[in-house]
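#struct-pred
JK: can someone run the complex with nicotinamide-adenine-dinucleotide? inputs below
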Amino acid sequence: MEFFTHPEFDNHEQVVLFSDKATGLRAIVAIHNTNLGPALGGCRMWNYASDEEALTDVLRLSRGMTYKAAITGLPLGGGKSVIIGDAKKDKTPQMMQAMGRMVEKLNGLYIVAEDVNTDDQDMVNIHRYTGHVVGLPVSGQGTAGGNPSPMTALGVFTGLKTAVKHRLGKNSVEGVRVAVQGLGNVGYSLCERLHEEGAILTVTDIDTGRIQKAVDQLDATAVGLDEIYDVDADVFAPCALGGIINDKTLARLKVSVVAGAANNQLETGRHGIALKEKNVLYAPDYVVNAGGLINVYYEYLARITKGVQGREEDAIRHIHSIRETLEEIFLRAQNENVCTAEAADRVAEKRFLFPENGQDKAA
Ligand code: NAD
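RT: done, structure tokens with the ligand placed:
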């Protein structure tokens, strides 16, 4: 298997293999960049077909965390871990405790969090052996932490409104037509906020119960899974899957703005350019969906300062700053005649590649 020449390697600082015979733990921790601070990122458990597939996934995900932390102005680097195995069959409290012992050996260089197929109880098990973990049940009143999804939704709402203001000149989403793909933890919470401010919702999900709830409670109009791309709306908010901006869907989109929670919305970088050419304003996914990361950062801060810092209100204030970050990205995209995804990468790289002198790699 290739490491240094792996297509996703991108100058990772460290890639660490963990194994524990007694519990069957096999994990990879990828630490992409720690110029701005310790690498924070979720621990995903997945039944990868091969070690190669697991490595590719963890490298790609940890790099993304570096960009997300940097663009959000957090003193954090990017990292991620994957546990190889079937979460339903193979995961045990002992395995997660073994993961905690391994994370502890990294001495704070990597802070672990929940991700696909891991939850707050897994983090509690990890926490038995290391303090370098977030996503634990909330420790005190007013302290940041707990379920990150409502905070992610707040960030997406802030980002969506910023894009609407920039493109449509509206200070509110009242009367703005939003097509939402996915009514899960983040998508539904986003819909509630949009509805409260008077947006007109069209929704889809594979779960018909969630659709019915949105129709009943939020006056939403339901459409089929594939019809969401054809909706005559102002905004498309992808909150389910990655790769949904691709050659097939692009031609169908009638919206002026794309802003949603899903990770890796663009199938390739080329699709960011195609959105720009189609005059669709794209609010880059990792900028607008950073609310959950911001929330767990303040949870960590609360722990290490014993509650002196890390209030929930600080996390909320930071999430609201997604507005200024996006405005900077939109301006830069205009000035440099690049797509917004490229502009976001440039701003993030400027911060994490040259944290001391603020030099701009892209300039
Ligand atoms: P979730 O699993 O709670 O919700 C996803 C929803 O999408 C579910 O209701 C599911 O039924 C639906 N769905 C699945 N396939 C679909 C399809 N083909 N068409 C329409 N709907 C479909 O997940 P979530 O926590 O709400 O996260 C949503 C997205 O946001 C994911 O891409 C996730 O990676 C990303 N994200 C989430 C957070 C967070 O804090 N939860 C943070 C950052 C990014």
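RT: quick notes.
The chain has a mean pLDDT of 95.
Residues 148-149, 152, 181-187, 204-207, 210, 225, 239-241, 261-263, 289, 292 surround nicotinamide-adenine-dinucleotide (CB under 6 Å).
JK: thanks, will look after standup
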